[in-house]
Structures are given as C-alpha cells and as structure tokens.
Design a protein that fits this description.
The complex is a heterodimer. Chain A is mostly beta strands. Chain A has no helices and eleven strands. In chain A, strands 2, 4, 5, 6, 9, 10 and 11 form a seven-stranded mixed sheet that branches. Chain A has a four-stranded antiparallel sheet with strand order 1-3-8-7, with no helix packed on it. The termini of chain A are far apart. Chain B contains no helices and twelve strands. The termini of chain B are far apart. Classes of the chains: A mainly beta, B mainly beta.
C-alpha cells in the first residue's frame, strides 16, 4: 500500500464547482504539503501544515483552502473552480525542516 | 529570493551514454539540496540529497551529484543511462521549512 494516498487520481469538473482533493498518509509524519505542477513551471507550493493546528499559505494559495482533519489527513479545496486551476496536484509529507518530502501519485484535475 | 535554476528543459541521450543534468542555486549561508525523479503518471521520488558533509553524493539507480559551493551548482550525473531512466528530473532546495523546485529537466533516453 502507498504511504501517501491521494484521491481521486483523476477528476474532470466544470467552472464554478466546489472540488475537494484528499490526502492521507501512513508514514506518521507531522508535516504535510500541497503542490500544483504545471508544464514548464515545476512544482509550486499551495499550502503546508506542520500539525493539526498549524496551517500556512504557500506561494500560490489564492483560490484554494485546506483542512488538516487529523495528523494523517490533509485535504485541499477549490471553492469555485476556474479553468486556470487545471493542473496536476501533489500531496507530500516530511519529518521536519530540510528533510526530504515523500509524495503521493498525484491528482490530475481538469476544469472545463 | 532564493531560487533553483535547471538550465535544460530537455536532454536527449542515447542508451549507455553518460548524462549530466544541470542545476544551479542562488547563494545562501545554509544549503540543503535534493534531486527528485518523476516517472510518467507517478509522484516524485527522491534520488539523492545533500545536507552536509561530502560534496559527492550517491543516490539510487546509479545517479550521483556533486555539490560545488564556488559555482553554486549541484549537477546530477550518471555514467551510463538506460531506457528506464527516461523521466522528468527536478532539482530542489530547502532554505527553511519548504522545498523550492526548479522547473524540471526531461531526460529522454533513445535506444
């Protein structure tokens, strides 16, 4: 079983819809992250969380929100999806500062 | 702002040839560097990391990288590539509690 699991793996939806992407982990890591990947731009950080009570904005948080329901669960929401949010979204976990991050397999989101 | 630059967006190479993927970072007092690989339809997988110590870092799948402080570089190398090395490779640094990624280099290995 994967250590970092993202659901769904693929999603197609319409402009204006509310979308939730979910991430769960069995690694026991405190830190969790959400990124989006766009061709030619690499990965950009949306939000990150160091524990259940600690949520921080990343580089491109506008239009997104997150919820850390438990140490193992971190969900990303698009309140009103727009086409330029079409991207590949990744969840990651880590043990602490300057440590490697462990990634899920991604969610491919298309907004029409 | 602290950044990572991957100079080549695509690198084509024949099987069994050597390869170097280039990465430069903006100078900083403390530097923590990583290389990740992304195979099609998968997440990123750690290849190797430099946190401190020896400047030559060995990773998985026969890859290695050399930390060069004077040139602010962390180039990834493999002496002989395989078809299965075809993937996208990302250089990243960790200035604080986050990772900053380069834009990626697509390695295409031809038979």
């Amino acid at each position: 079983d994967a250590d970092v699991t993202q659901t769904p793996r693929n999603r197609i939806t319409k402009t204006g819809k509310r979308i939730m992407l979910e991430c769960s982990q069995t690694k026991g890591h405190d830190r969790m992250y959400w990124y989006r990947q766009d061709p030619g731009l690499g990965l950009r950080l949306i939000y990150y969380s160091f524990d259940v009570k600690d949520i921080n904005k990343g580089e491109i948080s506008d239009g997104y929100s997150v919820s850390r329901q438990a140490q193992a669960k971190f969900s990303l929401s698009l309140e009103s999806a727009i086409p330029n949010q079409t991207a590949l979204y990744f969840c990651a976990t880590s043990t602490g500062s300057h440590q490697p991050q462990h990634f899920g397999d991604g969610t491919r989101l298309s907004i029409l | 702002a602290q950044s990572v630059t991957q100079l080549d967006s695509q690198v084509p190479v024949f099987e069994e040839a050597p390869v170097e993927l280039r990465c430069n970072y903006s100078s900083s007092v403390s530097v923590y560097l990583f290389w990740y690989v992304q195979y099609p339809n998968q997440g990123l997988q750690l290849l190797l990391k430099y946190l401190s110590g020896s400047t030559l870092v060995k990773g998985i799948n026969g890859f290695e990288a050399e930390f060069n402080k004077s040139q602010t570089s962390f180039h990834l190398r493999k002496p002989s590539v395989h078809i299965s090395d075809t993937a996208e490779y990302f250089c990243a640094r960790s200035p604080t509690d986050k990772l900053i990624f380069g834009t990626g280099t697509r390695l295409q290995v031809f038979p």
